[in-house]
Design a protein that fits this description.
The chain is of the alpha+beta class and about 180 residues long. About 35% of the residues lie in helices and about 40% in strands. It folds into two domains: about 50 residues; about 120 residues, Sandwich (Jelly Rolls). The strands form two sheets. Strands 1, 2, 4, 7 and 9 form a five-stranded antiparallel sheet that branches. It is elongated and about 115 Å long.
Amino acid sequence: MRLTEEKEEFDNFLRVKPDVMQTMLLFKIYKKMDKLTGIYNKLDKLTAFNSFMGPMSRRFKEEQQYQFATIPAPHGHGRVWYMVNPQPDLLVGIITQVANSWFPNTHLEWLIDHDPKRVEYIIGAVNAPKHFDRGVPFFDEVEWIAWNDDTVNHVFQVLCDGFFIDKKLYNKIAGGNNV
């Protein structure tokens, strides 16, 4: 009888109870997840880098988004906002938000790739810019010039926000061939 009891005890020792087995499996899963989390953190950094280098995340530099200038009266004019495409061979700029100040007896010229558009109104307030869902593309440069025909000096403000996108990708999206 003694041998049978020892065999039973040994069998019980070898047998794993379901709750112990579950704990062991959970521990193994935890270890694997911990290892994967380390890999995930490395991948997350790589993803962040790729996102930074990706097409939609080449945002306009923060210090260039908002610019202002005092334009003297009467008949004064001057540049208020300016941005040049840093790589016109490779990138297309997309303006997604615009805001400007305006005063009676004044006007602004919004030049997109040297094509002027006369602006005699507020497109969007600086604290609540107008959002363009489709964006306004430019290939070379964007400039805002203010003209002051008033009797007092005015401080003109312009805010333009957006991003740069790969020119090849832009051509695929827009269906053009802007080389």
